Amino acid sequence: MKSRKAPGSDEVTADILKGGAGEPVIKWLHEMFTNMWENERVVKAWGSATRIRLYKNKGNKKLCDNYRDISLLSVTSKIFSRIILNRIQNPINEQLLEIQSGFSIEQIND
C-alpha cells in the first residue's frame, strides 16, 4: 500500500495501518477478515468507490476535459483482496498448462 493517499469511504488510510496503529489494528483486521472468510460475506460498502474529479493543472478550469476522475477505494478492502489473491494465485499457477501461461507473472518476468 502506498502512503499519503486519500482514504476511501471507511476513512482508514494506509498510513494508519502502516504507522503507529500496531497490534490492536492487526488483531481487528484479522478478526474481521476471518469473520468474512467464514461467513462468505464482505462489507457491502467495499463494493463501491468514491469518485473525485481532479483538475489536471492545465487549460481552462471550466472545461470538463481538463479534469480526470479518480476512485477512492477502501484500504481495508484492498488488503483483503490482496490476501485472497495470494491464497488463490499459487494453486491457479500450478494448474495452468504451460501454453496457457503466456500472460502469467512468471512468463512476464523471464
UniProtKB/TrEMBL annotation:
Domain of life: Eukaryota
Name this polypeptide is given: Reverse transcriptase domain-containing protein
Organism: Rotaria socialis
